[in-house]
Amino acid sequence: MPATMHYSRDNLWQIEQAGFDHLLLGKTEAIMALGNGYFGTRSAEEESYVGEQRDTLVAGTFNAFHPTEVTELPNAPDMWAMNFTISGAVLSLIKGTVHDYSKRLDLRTGELTREFGWEYEGRNLKFTFRRFVSKARRHVMASFVTIENLGSEDLTFQVSSGIDGRYSNEGSQHFTEGEKGLVEGKYLQMMPTTTQSGITFVQTVVHDVHADKVTSHIEIERRRILLDHSFTVPSGGTATLERRASIYTSIDNDLASHDVADMRAVAVGELDSIADRSFDQLLTESAGAWDERVWRVHPIIIDSDDFRDQLAIRFAQYHLHASTPAHDERMNIGAKGLTGENYKGHTFWDTEVFMLPYFAFTHPDIAKSLVTYRYLGLEGARNKAEANGYRGAQYPWEAAWPSDGEVTPVWGAADIVTGQATKIWSGFIEYHITSDVAFGVKLYMDVTGDLDWARAKGYEILLETARFWLSRLEWNGEKQQYEINDVVGPDEYKEHVNNNAFTNYLAHWNMTYAIDLIDSLHTQQPEVYAKLDEQFDLEALKAQLVDMEGKVHLPQPTAEGIIPQDDTYLSKEVIDLTRYKAHDTVGSLFRDYNLDQVNDMQITKQADVLLLLLLHEDLFEKELKLKNFDYYEPKTTHDSSLSLSTHAILSADLGKLDQAYGFFTQARDIDMGEYMKSSDPGIHAASLGGIWQMIVFGFGGVRMIEDKLRIEPHLPSEWQKLSFGFDYQGQSISATVDEKGLTLTKAGTGDGVTFLSGGEELTLTDTIHVPSGR
Asked: Is the pTM for the entire model greater than 0.90?
């Protein structure tokens, strides 16, 4: 049976792979990855196959293999692999006959289950593998294997399992071997240390085998420590093997001591403390944490013609929480979460624009940690600005440990024409990341109303980013305007362009917001003003901002109503993108053209002008948005997974609900779809944040317009009803949208919540109904 994705209306919490194909391992390794935010691990099979990718990534543990390479999350020694030899035959699903193969992830509990029947040269067996990463105990993972002998002969088993440090990051080995050994006669431990950052890992495994004639012996090799278990399973009999493990590191913020001996003792003590609990009890404990921290918090219910829409938001939320290091503000979300090595675990603008809104509106404590990471990154951002001859804070395009500054690699994929590596210019000239960070800071402050954080951290970020733009602007004497030249905008297929509209408008917004902030602090928060004045000389800063912001070039619509993406975009060649947009894989364009050629065509990688129209929708009339949508969307390849959510939300706003729903289903299927190679490098974290945005912002109509809440829903025809919730400035609000309109309910007895809907200002005190068409 070929490997296919299988979903069922009868279980809207489960994703399943039916059938096995050793050439299609990566998809479910990634989309069924397990994690709790502290660490994540790909769901590779227990038995080994060529082409597998065994990744266990611990948030924040960045290391550089060599001074010429950038830092990345190191692939920690593996603790999931198990090699089975059964009466002389190695278990491999490539040989023999495989029956009823099923690999499935329960999104509600975080449990991975894999089961199959295997017949080979007289052996007839059924295997059931279960595993989870604890959401309740951040360091703990566990697995449970059941083996049933369905044949007529007794079988002998040799099972090898332990800690294997022979893995790397695509060849880069990030660890010294470290000490390893057996503790108290049963706990395997390995203590590798990262080569450059000096972070020590303490990894511990303990086994419990229930079978006939069990014997076990230790095996220590280079970078590996294992226990080899031998036992017998009689005809009609069953054996079980349970494995519990933990990971600690010397940067953990929940340890009193980072001395290696102390960490080893803590690790053994934790596994000792749960020894009397069964696998199912520990799983129930973890599932309870998932329920309390995620599933009970503003649940989303979608009554849709396609049940996969409901499954999609649960899939998205699962991975957002499995990959977000909510436990430590020194860490942030990687582009692939914790599901793969791609993008090296680095943080991009993906956080502020695509994932932070979910957390700000539903888990403000996690959102606070994410924006605090950017505050801790001010040192690195100031250093980058100074190194480039600028002032203020220039945020890195790719960020790792917050004080490290820029960590974007210099070289990327091969040029189809020259055969040489292509230079990655984003780390040098994709400046919009700085105002994206400012945008995220303002969003957090507006949604949560967290004045304490704003005073302590947020205002400083907003002022420092505005200072950067003052130093980055270039005066054009001929046109008597300030410009921003030689940039890459959100459309990364256009390099070295001048006056990218998104970049210019957001820089201008950053500057004008700083002016308003200075005025507000002066009149309303004089103590805060005085403190910041010592650092920034606010009167002089305001004077410079006022002098320059009015002269910033903001690309204006043409006579046809089209906002130029940059100075030259509209003069470039137009080609038909139909066959490229229909292709299963992204980047198919580059099989025919190189980046220099694409740079000279009206081809957009992802939403650029359209993202501007969405993030600053109050600046543009609906008719102008419609013209630009109709112009730019046909020229957009959507080669970035970040693109579809912007197009879905904007098209919903413009009344193009069929098209909006089409974009939604495309985004839904990036990871969950039938194409079995789409997610090999890891899940698309920003796109998953975009799924929540499409539902709540797009179809639910929730939006922050400047500093005001607006709710104007518009459901696609495929949806009969949508229920969701969100937090707004300390108040918990539930919303239901159906053909009759919008119903809002506020929990608690706090102040009423003022919001905009249909051009009116309304106040929610308890429950309010806004009829359709109002």
From this structure: yes
